[in-house]
């Protein structure tokens, strides 16, 4: 049995990792000023940040079912007997719906996993699933590895303004207005696939310091160790500083890596965003590939 892994571009997996594990990535789309681009293919995060600063219309859209079917057919042609397809939370995108529609026409069985997450919290789950598949795990086992690791992960983030989340319908208008009116810098988190306000602070420096504390606390709860990814949009210097501090404070982390947010998530959170994904490692008893 050979289980292939498919994910979408909001996992933000580095190309070297995708190639090493034979993962297929289906891009979501970002529309800037009426022109559609494929994430990771023909649009950069810098272009999205610039468009947002200039108040150009920016929106996003899911991949088509055909894009997923193409990926599934390719995996089957390359010898896969089944496929695990892991995607961004269904409460933030209808990408999972497209994957389910394509799975009905796939030449081999497909297990679609709603990660209830995004970014490297999803990316680490995909990698663990690929490792489990390489170790001989069957379809359901591979899907469970992905689901478990994504579920156990913590994602916290800071945005300079709630306005972009409000425009995209990812946070309520009242919360966005309150944040702007009081000059509050919010700390947000993912809770079962939803964006939830966690804390409110008065300055960006305090917000980033609090982000660091939350990440350290989450890593400390991971008994088997954790991998940590720091995401950013157009805030490289602050992100690099945060990576350095987390490496110092969490010396037993599997890795602490810097991963720029892509165009799709960037379109919703806006320039200046910092996010941290803390992903507890899969224990040997949970995966034959660990």
UniProtKB/TrEMBL annotation:
Keyword check for Zinc-finger: no
Descriptive protein name: DegV family protein
Example of a GO MF term: lipid binding
Keywords: Lipid-binding
């Amino acid at each position: 049995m050979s289980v292939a892994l498919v994910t979408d571009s909001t996992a933000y997996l580095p190309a070297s990792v995708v190639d090493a594990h034979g993962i297929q990535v289906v891009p979501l789309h970002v529309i800037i000023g009426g022109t559609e681009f494929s994430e990771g293919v023909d649009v950069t995060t810098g272009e999205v940040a610039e468009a947002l600063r200039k108040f150009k219309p920016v929106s996003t859209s899911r991949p088509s079912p055909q894009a997923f079917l193409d990926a599934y057919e390719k995996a089957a042609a390359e010898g896969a007997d089944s496929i695990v397809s892991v995607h961004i939370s269904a409460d933030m995108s209808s990408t999972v719906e497209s994957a389910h529609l394509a799975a009905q026409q796939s030449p081999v069985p497909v297990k679609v996993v709603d990660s209830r997450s995004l970014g490297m919290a999803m990316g680490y789950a995909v990698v663990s699933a690929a490792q489990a598949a390489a170790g001989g795990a069957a379809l359901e086992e591979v899907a469970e590895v992905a689901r478990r690791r994504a579920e156990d992960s913590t994602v916290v983030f800071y945005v300079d303004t709630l306005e972009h989340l409000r425009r995209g319908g990812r946070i309520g208008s009242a919360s966005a207005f309150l944040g702007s009116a009081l000059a509050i810098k919010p700390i947000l988190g993912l809770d079962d696939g939803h964006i939830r306000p966690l804390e409110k602070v008065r300055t960006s420096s305090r917000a980033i310091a609090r982000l660091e504390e939350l990440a350290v606390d989450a890593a400390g709860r991971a008994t088997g160790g954790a991998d940590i990814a720091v995401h950013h949009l157009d805030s490289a210097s602050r992100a690099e500083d945060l990576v350095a501090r987390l490496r110092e404070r969490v010396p037993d982390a599997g890795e602490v890596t810097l991963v720029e947010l892509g165009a799709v998530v960037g379109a919703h959170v806006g320039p200046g965003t910092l996010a941290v994904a803390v992903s507890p490692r899969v224990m040997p008893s949970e995966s034959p590939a660990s």
